UniProtKB/TrEMBL annotation:
Gene3D superfamilies: GntR ligand-binding domain-like (1.20.120.530), Winged helix-like DNA-binding domain superfamily/Winged helix DNA-binding domain (1.10.10.10). Keywords: DNA-binding, Transcription, Transcription regulation. It comes from Arthrobacter saudimassiliensis. Residues 15-83 form the HTH gntR-type domain. This is HTH-type transcriptional regulator LutR. Coiled coil: none annotated. Pfam families: FCD (PF07729), GntR (PF00392). It comes from the Bacteria. InterPro entries: GntR_C (IPR011711), TF_FadR/GntR_C (IPR008920), Tscrpt_reg_HTH_GntR (IPR000524), WH-like_DNA-bd_sf (IPR036388), WH_DNA-bd_sf (IPR036390). GO terms for molecular function: DNA binding; DNA-binding transcription factor activity.
Amino acid sequence: MHRTESLPPARFSAQNRSRALQAGIMDLILERDLKPGDALPTETELTAALGIGRNTLREALKVLQALGVVEIRHGFGMFVAPANFDALADGLTFRGRLSLRHEGKEALQLVDVRQALESGLIGEAMDLSSDEHLAEIEATVEQMEALAERGESFTEVDERFHYQLFEPLGNELLSNLMSVFWKVYRKIHIELGGDPLINLRETAAVHRGIFEAVRSGDKELASERLRRHFDGIRKELDKLRDAG
């Protein structure tokens, strides 16, 4: 018999109770129609409403704070947290890096998701792009090219380019998710021991090609060029899988 089976019943039950309590607090936030930045009921009110002790409540609130649901400001109170994707970014980064110790399955899945988001939504973003916005994107590409000529990396400029492509959609959730995947993507690249900007001129040329497809209004070409933009990291992750 393996020694690492399921958790003991008592511990498993405690975890279930903890999750149920966290869900109860979130339900209470929703039922009271609280918005980000709004104050939560006091500890006394929460313990009475949920039928729990103060210490149990505090432990649940700590977990919800780590998850970005609740914000605890010592000396001021407890509040519904504003949108914060740090916990998601940290969790996905850890999972991606952990998978690199094996066959890189989770890391590849993360690349799949980012690729699907960008290549799948570019057409809709193109429909909403103005000439002024296209000029801003081109200025970013020109900055990449200038830095490449000087042999200087342009990580932040690269990130700005991808953000600008989808800015016309006005989708805050998409922007936050792209920021999350950008952080994860960079960490995975570093973990693999490579630098996506090692060939600066080639990287700048790839972005120029994406922009030209967008400016020309060729949605299919723009989507394809964005999709192929991820070929490099895919090849590195495929090596891990083949080695495994």
